[in-house]
Design a protein that fits this description.
Blueprint (H helix, E strand, L loop, with lengths): L3 E4 L2 E4 L4 E7 L1 H4 L3 E7 L6 E7 L5 E3 L7 E6 L4 E6 L8 E8 L14 E2 L3 E6 L1
Parallel strand pairs: 2-11
Antiparallel strand pairs: 1-3, 3-8, 4-5, 4-9, 5-6, 7-8, 9-10, 9-11
């Protein structure tokens, strides 16, 4: 059964940290790419970070480089997003996604086959 379940969201002050987790079913975890997206009402879903299946390559949106780190734990079938020095503009619903195919433009939501239900992150100034 394909499944992605996010957790770890919450409300924090600017400058604080949060770690998001995405628990995946075994089959989903074997996807070629896994990524974190975020979305605020009225705006398009935005790619935040992506990691390849072998964890050898990672990609980040310019807005989060140096502050966010994507990683995966193969023993736990879990994807993580460590978010440091959070800013109010990081406030969004965060989604975990997985893509089966190679050649995906990692920032394009249409390239992903599976999505979680989302976890809310709210950063106040």
């Amino acid at each position: 059964q394909v499944q992605l379940v996010e957790s770890g969201g919450g409300s924090v002050q600017a400058g604080e940290s949060l770690t998001l987790s995405c628990a995946a079913s075994v089959d989903t975890y074997r996807s070629n790419y896994m990524a974190w997206f975020r979305q605020v009402p009225g705006k398009e879903r935005e790619g935040v970070a992506c990691i390849f299946i072998d964890a050898g390559r990672t990609f980040y949106a310019d807005s989060v480089k140096g502050r966010f780190t994507i990683s995966r734990d193969n023993a736990r079938y879990t994807l993580y997003l460590q978010m440091n020095n959070l800013k109010p503009e990081d406030t969004a619903m965060y989604y975990c996604a997985a893509a089966r195919s190679w050649g995906v433009i990692w920032t394009d939501p249409k390239g992903y086959n599976y999505w979680g239900q989302g976890t809310q992150v709210t950063v106040s100034s």
